[in-house]
Amino acid sequence: MPLITRRALLASAGAGFLVSASGGAYAGLIEPALMLGVTEYALTPPGWPADLPLTIAVVSDVHVCEPYVPMARVKRIVETVNALKPDLIVHLGDHEATHRFVSGRVPPQEWAAAYADLAAPLGFYTILGNHDWWHNHMSIRSALDGARLRVMENDVELIEHRGRRFWLAGLGDQLAHWLGRGGFRGEDDLAGTLARVKTDDPVLLLAHEPDIFVTVPARVSLTLCGHTHGGQVHIPGLTNPFIPSAYRDRFRYGHIVEEGRHLIVSGGIGMSGLPVRFGVPPEVLLVKLGNEPAIA
Ligand SMILES: [Fe+2]
């Protein structure tokens, strides 16, 4: 008699639920369209001063489109982020959806104008993702510029916070140009970006795809990425072959520490490929670095 492990049982139960009518409705409507959670991470990675508290709200992979991520959803994201009262807000790219199930486009000026309501004392910074490059990057860039939202591309900024300073770096997209047959040429220049860091202050890096993490030096305290959508469909115990990373599960989701280097991968909010989500509810991240100094 074959042995069935608990892991295999869970995987097959999850897969069975997903193909059922109620599972399909959940994955196609409830989880992607109605849910929006806040996932918190609290850490003091190497190089970050323990007594310098910084809160970062992280939005990623919104993939705005009708009918799945319409303007009402964008406004809910803005309200959710503002309620967190973060010091800094970042968006990790893939602003619009490009899948074939889009029933209508939302003009970039509309969603960019909604992001102009995001409130944080240190501002709002964004990078572009692969879908932005493949579809509409000039209009997206122009809409973000028009709303005075800072687009970073192989660029850095030295930010002052509580009398201290840190560098925020934003990497160009690693899959910007599709060359066919699974080949891509990126716009990313990690060495050139980090060469612009001119002081010893700590560095935070924004990069759309997490695969860059294998080459990110320890000089960077924390790398924030999106792109994978946490696999978009995640059933514990079952390997998802569609995770868009050469490293599959390794950088699928969450807080990953390798050789003392820290990476956080957001599951994002919207969808690519198919308009379904299962087991990876849409999320905004609240990343808390450092601690409030003790009062003597
Ligand atoms: Fe995405």
UniProtKB/TrEMBL annotation:
UniProt domain Calcineurin-like phosphoesterase: residue ranges: 55-230
Pfam family, one: Metallophos
Keyword Hydrolase among UniProt keywords: yes
Gene3D superfamilies to which the protein is assigned, alphabetical: 3.60.21.10
GO MF terms held by the record: metal ion binding; UDP-2,3-diacylglucosamine hydrolase activity
Superkingdom of this protein's organism: Bacteria
GO biological process, alphabetically ordered: lipid A biosynthetic process
InterPro entries according to UniProt: Calcineurin-like_PHP (IPR004843), Metallo-depent_PP-like (IPR029052), Metallophosphoesterase_sf (IPR051158), TAT_signal (IPR006311)
Keywords, alphabetical: Hydrolase, Metal-binding
GO cellular component labels: membrane
Name of the protein described by the UniProt record: Metallophosphoesterase
Lineage: Bacteria, Pseudomonadati, Pseudomonadota, Alphaproteobacteria, Hyphomicrobiales
